[in-house]
Predict the structure.
Amino acid sequence: MIKELSILIPVYNACPDGLAAQAAEQAERIAGLNYEIIVGDDGSDDPDVIRKIDELGHINRCRILRFDANRGRAAIRNSLAGAANHSRLLFIDGAHMRLCGDNYIEEYLSCGDDCRVVYGGYCLSEPDEETKRSNLRYKYESRTRQNRSAQMRNAAPGMDFHTCNFLVRKDVFGSVRFDERLVRYGYEDVLMGKNLTAHGIQIHHISNPTRLCGYEDNATFLRKTVDSLLTLKEFETELDGYSRLLNNVRLCRKLKIDSRLRSLYLKRKDRWTDNLTGNNPSLTVFRLFKLGFFLSL
């Protein structure tokens, strides 16, 4: 069993107090484990959040790595890895994530040296009925949850890798870091999965999920979606074959319907935006919005 571990929690304008406390409590129960917890604050500008993050210092073996400006999801994760003292790095997203099982950390530590990268997946909390009906993020995640099982992920290991919950050997991470050219939201994990595969580094998928316990409002989620589509457009060539949306774009171009879809988006984008930021968003509209927006770039 692995005997040393750096637990790395990147955040931006969110305080992972519950998550950090959970991780420390589990780590403390494991005899002989040499561990640390590092919370990386990527330039938060909310005074209340900054104050709460500062208070995390009372958690055993927890320290704060703070940056004055937001540098993006790739850069903060690389910085956390550089600050880590141990040979195994466990990355857990700090915004709205909680540990599912009481033996979450022990499950990762039981992975042997042959497992250079291990991804545990994530699951959803069950919100109230109003959120189920009105929240776009929950609707989207709920629709795709059947694709997140370890069995499904292992069928194409490099295609379904996410930053929210994974263990990696520090020497492996040093050879394949997150690409800091990606400064907008999205796709840093997809490109990492592609690069790991290109370097012959297998990603092991196991069932050891974190739980998504909060869902941003629809306007925020749509803004993040637009940012991710801009990232996808900028790195379209490099992400070819690693994006379902790019596959759909290619099909539309092959069928010569891309111009019609682009015109439909330009005609209806305001109406679609109203739907997606309203109280009963449609996933069909969401798919059309993403495809039309990308084709309009």
Q: What stands out?
A: The mean pLDDT is 94. Residues 245 and 291 are 7 Å apart (CA to CA).
